[in-house]
Amino acid sequence: MSFDFLDLNTTWFVLIAFLFTGYAILDGFDLGIGILHLFVKGDRERRLMLNAIGPVWDGNEVWLIAAGGALFAAFPSVYATVFSGFYTALVLLLASLILRAISIEFRSKREHPGWRQFWDTGFWLGSVLSSVLLGVALGNVAVGVPLDPRGEFAGNFWTLIRPYPILVGITTVALFAMHGATYALLKTEGELYETIRRWTFWALSYFAVCYVVLTISTVFAAPHMIERFKSHPWLFLIPAINAASIVTFWRKVRRGEARHAFAASCVCIAALLSVFAIGVYPNLVRSYPDPSQSLTILNASSSPNTLAIMLTIAIIGMPIVLAYTLLIHYLFRGKVKLEKSGY
Amino acid sequence: MDAVTLSRVQFGLTAAFHYIYPPMSIGLGVLMVIFELTWLRTGKALYHQLARFWTRIFGLIFAMGVATGIVMEFEFGTNWATYSRFVGDVFGSPLAAEAIFAFFLESSFLGLLIFGWDRVSRGVHFLATCMVCLGAHLSAVWILVANSWMHTPAGFHIVGEGPKARAEITDFWAMVFNPSTVDRVLHTICGAWQTGAFLVISVGAWYLLRSKHTDFARASLRTALPIALGASLLQLVTGHVSAQGVAKNQPVKLAAFEGLYDTTSNAPLKLFGWVDEENEISIGPAIPGLLSFLAHNDASKPVLGLREVAPAQKDRPPVNVTFQFFHLMVAVGFGLIALSALGLYSFWRGSLERKKWVLWLLVLAAIGPHVANQAGWFAAEVGRQPWIVQGLLRTSDAVSQTLKPGAVLGSIILFSLVYLVMFALFLYVLFDKIRHGPDEADLIVTGRLAHK
User: Fold this and answer.
1) A305: how many CB neighbours lie within 10 A of its CB?
2) Of B74, B100, B411, which is closest to A314 when you measure between CB atoms?
3) Closest Cα to residue A89, out of A21, A137, A49?
4) Which of its termini does chain A have fewer beta carbons within 10 Å around, N or C?
5) What is the DSSP track for B214-244?
6) Which chain B residues are closer than 8 Å to A311 by Cβ?
7) What is the per-residue pLDDT for B236?
C-alpha cells in the first residue's frame, strides 16, 4: 500500500499514543482493582474482584506489548534510548508486572489463608508499583531527560525520580484506583458494591487533587507542554473535556449509574493522555536541558517504507483486534459470579 | 565481568526459562482442540473431561509464558539498544505483527477458553479454543521470522556508516520469507507438538501406573501417542531440511555443529564426542558419510570446514559448546522416536498397562522434548556467534552503550531469584493438579454446554 498522502511519522505518533491509551483504559482497571485489593476484606469478596478481571486482564495487558513493539518498529531510537536508559526502572516494572501476573494465577490455588494473603499482597504490590513506574516513565518523557549527542540517555536512576515524574507516578496510581473502582462497580452488587462506591469517592478526590497539582506543576516544570495549546487555542477543548469528565464521573457515581461513570473514566484517561501527547509532539523524548538533542518523530523514526508496512499491518490487524476485544468484554458483561472455572 | 558477557548470560537465562512454556502451550493447544472436537462429535463425556482438565493446566502454563515473555520484548531495548537501533527498521515489524496478530488473539480468547465454559454455547467455546491454538502458533511464526532474519538476513540494505549504520527494509516479504524462516518455523512448531504430546502421554502413563483415572488415561494415550510418534518422525524430516539450509546459508554454524575443521567429502556424523578447540581436533565415534548426506543429500559431497569458512578465530562460535548442544538435541530426538514407537506399539497390542518399565519411560519422557528444544536453541544461537546478525553485526558490538555492569548483574540476580520461585511454584501447582486428577463432575455436562 502507498501512503504518500499521509504524514507517516505523525500517523505513527498518533497510533502509538492510541496503543498506550488503550492500554491505560484497559489494563488501567486491572491495575486499579489490584491497587484496591488489600482494602477488600473477605476471601469471597477478594475472589469476586479477581474474577471480575479474570477473563480480560491478559488480553488487556497485550496492549502494552503492542505499544512497545510498535515503538520498537516505528521509532527504534526511542525504544533503544528509553529502555536502556531507564534500565533499572524498567527492570523493576517487569518485576512488578510479573508479580501481578503470578499473584493472580497462584492466589486461589491453595486454601491456606497465609498463602492467599501472601499473593493478595503480591497482587497489590505488583499493581501499585507497575502504576507508579509507568507514571514515572511518562513524567520523565514529558519533562525531558538529559540526552547526549548520540541520543543516548545521559542521566542515572536519580534523574528518573525527580519531583515531577514522581508526581505523575502518584497521579497514575490515583487515576487507576479510580478507574478500577468504577469497573468494580460494574461487576459487583450488594454490600461489596456499596463499599466500593464509597471508595470511588475517595479515589476520585485523591485523583482530583493530584490532577490539579499536576496541571499547575506542568505549567512551571514543563512549560513546553503548553506551547502547542497556546498556538492552537482550540486544543484547550481537550483539557476542558478532561475536567468535564471528572465532574461527570462524580455525578454518575453519585446517581449509581456505573456504566456512565465508567465511560466518563475512560474519557478522562483518553483526554489526559491526549493532552500529554499534544504537549510532547513532535518530540518523543525531550532532551533536557538542551532541547536541540531531543528525539523527535523525524530523527528517531524508521524508514518511510517500514512505517508504511507497519501501517498496513495495523490497518488489517487492529480492527479485528478491536472487534473481538469488544465481543469478549461483552460476553463477560454483568455482575461477576464465582464459578468453578474461575480464580 | 563486563556488560556484554553479563547481558549475554541474562538473555540466555531469560530466553531459556521462557522457552519452557510456549512449546507446551502450542502443543497442548493442538491437543485441547482435538479433545474438544472429539467430544463435540462423539458426545462422549470422557473427552469433555479431558478438555476441561487440560484447559486448567494450559491456563497455568500460559500465564508463565506471558510473564516471562514480556521480559523478552523489553530486553531487546534494555540490554541490546545498539542492536535495536541497527535492526529496528527490519526487526521491529515482525515483533509488532506478533503482538497484533498473535498475542491479542490468544490472550483475548484465553478468557473465553478458561472462563467461558458455562457462559457460551459449545460452538463458541470451541471457536475460542481454536483461536487460542492459532494465536499460539502465529506467535511462534512471527518470532521465528524475526529470529531467522538474524541468522539469514534478507530484504534489507544498509544505510549510513559507522556507528550510525542501520539496516533498512527493502522488501517485507523477502524479509519474512528469508532463507531460513520456513525451515525453522516447521522445525520449532514440530518440536512444540512433541512437547505437548509427551506431556499428555506422561500424565496418562502416570495414571496407569497408579491405576487411577484409567479411562481418562487410556483416552489420553490413544490420542497423544500417535501425535508424539508422528511429530517425532516429522521432526527428523524438518531437521534434515533445516540442516541443508544451514549448510547452504550458515556453513560456519554447520561446521561448528560437527566440530569439522577441515573441508571433508564423505563427511562423517559423530554420535557424540568432544572438540578440542585449541588444537582444532574433534574426536568421537562417527558414521561415515552421514554429515555430507545430511547437508547435501549426497554422501560424496564435501562439507566445508571451519578452517575454510572461518579461518580467523574471531569469526568462529564456541565450537565445543555448539557441538555438544547439537548432538544432545539429535540424540534426544532419536530417543523420542524410539520411545513413542514403543509406547504406541505396546498400547496397540494391549500390553502397555502390564509393562511398567515402558510406562515409567513414558512418564519421564515429558522432559525429553524440553531438553531437545533447549539444546536446539542453544546450538542455533551459540552457533551463530560471534554474530548477532550474521555477517552484519557482532554481538559484542550490539550491547546498550549506557549499561553499567553492576545494573546488569543486579537484574540477573533479580530475574534468577524470581524465576526460581516461579518455577518452584509452577511445578508445585502443576503436580498438585495432576495428583488431584480430572474432575469427576466434568463427566456430567451442565449448563449451556448441555444443550447442543
Assistant:
1) 16
2) B100
3) A137
4) N
5) HHHHHHHHHHHHHHHHHHHHHHHHHHHHHHH
6) none
7) 96
Which residue does chain A place closest to B158, by CA atoms?
A: A303
Q: What per-residue confidence (pLDDT) applies to B450? A: 67
Q: What is the pLDDT of residues B328-381, one digit of tens each?
A: 999 999 999 999 999 999 999 999 999 999 999 999 999 999 999 999 999 999
Cα–Cα distance, A154 to A151 (Å, whole number): 9
Residues 6+ apart with CB under 8 A from A137: A82, A86, A89, A90, A93, A160, A165
Q: Quick one: cell of B132?
A: 487460542
Collapsed DSSP state (helix, strand, coil) of residue A257: coil
* Residue stretches of chain A with pLDDT short of 70: 1-2
Q: H or E stretch including B30?
A: helix B21-42
- Whether the bond between A165 and the residue before it is cis, its omega within 30 degrees of 0, is no
DSSP, collapsed to helix, strand or coil, labels residue B283 as strand
pLDDT, tens only, A215-225: 999 999 899 99
Whole-number pLDDT of residue A289: 84
Sequence-ordered alpha helix ranges (H) in B121-250 = 122-151, 172-176, 181-209, 214-249
Please give the grid coordinates belonging to residue B440.
Answer: 469427576
Considering only residues 266 to 325 of chain A, which have any Cβ-Cβ distance to chain B shorter than 8 Å? Answer: 302-303, 305-306, 309-310, 313-314, 317-318, 321, 324-325
Give the pLDDT score at B452.
Answer: 52
- Tell whether A339 lies on the interface with B, counting CB pairs under 8 A: yes
Distance separating alpha carbons of residues A271 and A91, to the nearest angstrom: 29
Indicate which of B13, B74, B101, B404 best probes the interface with A, i.e. most A CBs within 10 Å of its own CB. Answer: B74
| Chain A residues near residue B68 by CB distance under 8 angstroms | 98
Given a cut of 70, the residues of chain B with pLDDT beneath it are 446-452
Give the type of residue at B357.
Answer: W
Mind giving me the DSSP string for A154-214? ---HHHHTSHHHHHHHHHHHHHHHHHHHHHHHHH--HHHHHHHHHHHHHHHHHHHHHHHHH
A162, A251, A173: which is closest to A211 by C-alpha? A173
Do A116 and A108 form a contact (C-beta atoms < 8 A)?
yes
**What is the distance between the alpha carbons of residues A331 and A55, in angstroms, rounded to a whole number?**
10
In this prediction, residue B443 carries a pLDDT of: 85
The answer to whether A204 and A246 have CB atoms below 8 angstroms apart is yes
Q: According to the model, what pLDDT value does residue A4 have?
A: 74
Q: Of the candidates B220, B196, B183, B230, which has an alpha carbon nearest to the alpha carbon of residue B22?
A: B196
Contacts of residue A205, defined as CB under 8 A and 6 or more positions apart, other chains included, come to none
As a whole number of angstroms, the distance between CA B314 and CA B387 comes to: 10
Residues of B in contact with A109 (CB under 8 A): 429, 432
Q: State the CB neighbour count (10 A cutoff) for residue A43.
A: 14
CA distances from A181 to A21, A184, A262 (A): 18, 5, 9
Q: What is the ipTM of this complex?
A: 0.93
Residue from the list B52, B74, B107 with its beta carbon closest to the beta carbon of A62: B107
Crossing angle (nearest 10°) for helices A190-221 and A224-231: 90
Helix count (H) and strand count (E) of chain A? 13, 2
DSSP H or E run through B180: none
- Least CB-CB distance to A109: which of B120, B168, B429? B429
